[in-house]
C-alpha cells in the first residue's frame, strides 16, 4: 500500500503519525515526508538498510533495527522531542545526542550490541541534554556508558567520568539489567529513580561527584520523590551508608527482590530524622524476608506499608504502634503474615 502511496503521501498535510516497515521495496521518501508539516510521530519497524530521515517531526521510534550503525543523522534531528530504540541489533555505538535542544525523552531498550553513547568535545554544560527529562535504559548488557568522540575503544578509564557534566533537567531515570554500565553523567536533581542490578557505581558517582564538581543549590538527590531499588543494587560497598539522609523529599520507597541481608545494610538511627517526607514504603518479592526491618518504626511520617509476595514474612516489628500516622497496611500474596495479623487481631479482641 505504502509503495504506491509514497509519492502522493505528501498531500496529507494533516497527517500526524506514520508507522511503517521499511525494506528495499517500500521506500519512504525523506523529501516527501518533510512536507508533512503536522507530522509528530514516525515509527520505523524492522529497518534493514541505511537511509536518511526527515527532520521536523517530534517523535522517532525504531524497532528491530539490524544495521551496523545508527546513522549520524540522529544527531541532526534538531526538533526531535522523543527517541525510542527497541530491540536494535548490530550497532556498537550511538552518535552524540547531547546537543539536541528539545529532546525530552530517550529510551534505549534491549539493544544487545550497544557499548557506547558518544559525546562531543568540548563539553558545553549549558547545552548538555538541556531539555532531557526522562531516560530509560533497559537490557543493554554490553553498554559501558558515555565516551568521548575520537577515543579508542580500548582507551577508557574512570577519569572520563569526571569529565561528564550532570543532566540539568533529568527528572525520571530507570536503569535495569545493564551490568557493564559505569560511565554516566550524574543526576543530582532527579525526582524518580529506579535502579536494578550491579550498577551502584552510578549512584555513588552522583552522591560523590555532583556535590564537589558542580555548584548546585541543593544536596544531591534531595529532590528525589520516588525510589525503586531492585535486586543487588545494595551489594556495592562504595555507596555511602548515610546517603539516605540526602533523601529529604522522598515520598515513595519500593524494595524489589531484596534478601534479608540487603535490609541489614540499611540502618536508620533513632536520633536522626531519616526520610522525613516518606509516606509509602513497599516490599515486593522479598522471598527470604521473615520479619519487617525494625528501622521502619523510626520513619514517623509513614502512612502506607505495602507487602507483595513475601511468602516467608511472618513478623511485624514490635514498635509498629509508634507509627502514629500509619493508615494502611496492605498485604498481597503473603499468607504467613496474613495469618499472623489475623491471630493478633483475634487475641486483641479477646481482651
From TrEMBL:
InterPro entries given in the database record: LRR_dom_sf (IPR032675), LRR_R13L1-DRL21 (IPR056789)
Protein name: NB-ARC domain disease resistance protein
Lineage: Eukaryota, Viridiplantae, Streptophyta, Embryophyta, Tracheophyta
PANTHER family xref list: LEUCINE-RICH REPEAT-CONTAINING PROTEIN 57 (PTHR47186), OS09G0267800 PROTEIN (PTHR47186:SF3)
SUPFAM superfamilies xrefs: L domain-like
Short name of any one Pfam family annotated for the protein: LRR_R13L1-DRL21
Residues annotated as domain R13L1/DRL21-like LRR repeat region: 58-108
Amino acid at each position: 500500500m505504502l509503495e504506491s502511496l509514497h509519492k502522493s503521501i505528501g498531500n496529507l498535510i494533516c497527517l500526524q503519525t506514520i508507522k511503517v516497515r521499511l525494506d528495499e521495496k517500500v521506500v519512504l521518501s525523506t523529501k516527501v515526508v518533510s512536507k508533512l508539516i503536522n507530522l509528530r510521530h514516525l515509527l520505523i519497524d524492522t529497518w534493514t538498510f541505511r537511509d536518511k530521515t526527515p527532520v521536523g517531526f517530534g517523535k522517532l521510534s525504531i524497532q528491530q533495527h539490524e544495521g551496523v550503525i545508527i546513522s549520524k543523522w540522529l544527531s541532526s534531528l534538531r526538533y526531535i522531542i522523543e527517541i525510542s530504540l527497541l530491540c536494535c541489533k548490530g550497532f556498537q555505538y550511538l552518535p552524540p545526542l547531547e546537543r539536541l535542544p528539545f529532546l525530552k525523552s530517550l529510551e534505549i531498550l534491549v539493544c544487545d550490541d550497544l557499548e557506547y553513547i558518544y559525546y562531543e568535545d568540548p563539553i558545553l554544560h549549558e547545552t548538555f541534554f538541556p531539555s532531557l527529562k526522562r531516560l530509560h535504559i533497559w537490557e543493554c548488557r554490553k553498554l559501558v556508558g558515555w565516551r568521548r568522540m575520537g577515543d579508542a575503544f580500548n582507551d577508557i578509564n574512570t577519569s572520563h567520568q569526571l569529565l561528564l557534566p550532570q543532566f540539568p533537567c533529568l527528572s525520571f531515570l530507570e536503569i535495569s539489567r545493564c551490568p557493564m554500565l559505569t560511565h554516566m553523567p550524574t543526576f543530582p536533581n532527579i525526582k524518580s529513580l529506579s535502579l536494578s542490578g550491579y550498577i551502584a557505581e552510578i549512584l555513588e558517582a552522583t552522591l560523590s561527584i555532583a556535590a564537589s564538581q558542580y555548584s548546585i543549590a541543593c544536596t544531591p538527590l534531595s529532590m528525589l520523590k520516588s525510589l525503586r531499588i531492585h535486586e543487588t543494587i545494595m551489594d556495592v560497598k562504595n555507596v555511602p551508608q548515610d546517603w539516605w539522609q540526602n533523601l529529604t523529599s522522598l515520598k515513595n520507597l519500593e524494595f524489589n527482590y531484596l534478601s534479608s541481608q540487603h535490609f541489614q545494610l540499611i540502618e536508620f538511627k533513632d536520633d536522626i530524622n531519616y526520610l522525613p517526607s516518606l509516606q509509602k514504603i513497599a516490599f515486593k518479592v522479598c522471598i527470604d524476608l521473615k520479619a519487617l526491618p525494625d528501622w521502619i518504626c523510626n520513619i514517623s511520617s509513614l502512612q502506607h506499608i505495602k507487602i507483595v509476595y513475601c511468602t516467608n514474612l511472618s513478623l511485624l516489628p514490635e514498635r509498629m504502634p509508634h507509627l502514629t500516622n500509619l493508615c494502611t497496611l496492605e498485604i498481597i500474596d503473603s499468607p504467613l503474615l496474613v495469618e499472623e495479623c489475623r491471630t493478633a487481631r483475634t487475641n486483641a479482641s479477646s481482651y
